[in-house]
């Protein structure tokens, strides 16, 4: 046997041994983090941070930033600094690249009472499937207390696709993924299965399709119907305040207000942050779903590059009091360009794909 063969066998044996050791480190399925994971936790915050994409940007001074990594570090500080909340953090990382062996491309952190209780790497699956499985394995075996605690969901990433693309990849979170994930996660964490607040820190999330689809699983939503340019929402509130002392409405407005102030001072483009009351907007969303076209299901990921967004009611004669019932919009027009004279935003965005096509949607 030549030296190359010996080296190859040694490498294979080492990999098998490493894999075996890794397998032994896994928590047995069905074993919760604690008999009652939420004991002494007055608030539960779940963060999904998508990092499988281009999240590199430069600030006004030319300094480079990785938006997803900065958010992960900030959430870790929140978890370590809170004695009354539990924090679930999932960081979705890029895929395997050219490596011949599958690489774990997700990291899960669990904080409770200001300390890191659990950290593990995992293989991502379609949508939020892997994250749901981890949560069910580690916490749903515990007993629901039924106590009215603050329950918040955060998604940081690129825009949420409103259709199931033909060449689907993990780089895109679809609306179907989001609604399925919210339903499963909510059912695991609390008896009434609803999140008090959902924060969508992604571009163009203030559409009738997105807000309407997640409304059965949330009470309030904070989202932007415009482009965020990787300038994620402000989380300073969760470093200083005891959020369990704030009701969901106040929490949503405070987060939206702080995020608007942050974006207003750091960007030159349009700034729009909206708060949606799921119960109050239900009637409008039902009517919108009946009147507005749905996006064709056979679009590909490449079609997303041709999307053009606009304020649904920019040229409409509709009564804004009806359109904005249950919606509070923090808005500042861009400091340059043809939209600089647009003085208000309805809070609802519509989109269309490609020039000269008949496919339009106001979702």
Describe the protein's architecture and organization.
By secondary structure, the protein is an alpha/beta fold. The protein has 9 helices and 14 strands. Helix 3 runs parallel beside helix 4 and helix 4 packs parallel to helix 5. The longest helix has 22 residues. The radius of gyration is 22 Å and the shape is globular. The termini are far apart.
| Strand adjacency order, main sheet | 6-5-4-1-7-8-9-10-12
The biggest beta sheet is recorded as:
9 strands, mixed
Helix content: 25-40%
Q: Give the structural class.
A: alpha/beta
Mean pLDDT: 77
Short account of what is shown:
This protein has about 375 residues and is α/β, with parallel strands linked by helices. The protein has helices at about 5-25, 65-80, 130-140, 175-190, 210-215, 235-240, 250-265, 280-290, 320-325, and strands at about 45-50, 55-60, 65, 85-90, 105-110, 115-120, 150-155, 195-200, 220-225, 270-275, 305-310, 325-330, 350-355, 360.
Note the topology:
Layout (H helix, E strand, L loop, with lengths): L2 H22 L18 E8 L5 E3 L5 E3 H15 L3 E8 L13 E7 L2 E8 L6 H10 L11 E7 L18 H15 L5 E7 L6 H7 L3 E6 L13 H4 L7 H19 L4 E7 L4 H10 L15 E5 L8 H4 L3 E6 L16 E5 L6 E2 L2
Parallel strand pairs: 1-4, 1-7, 7-8, 8-9
Antiparallel strand pairs: 2-3, 4-5, 5-6, 9-10, 10-12, 11-13, 13-14
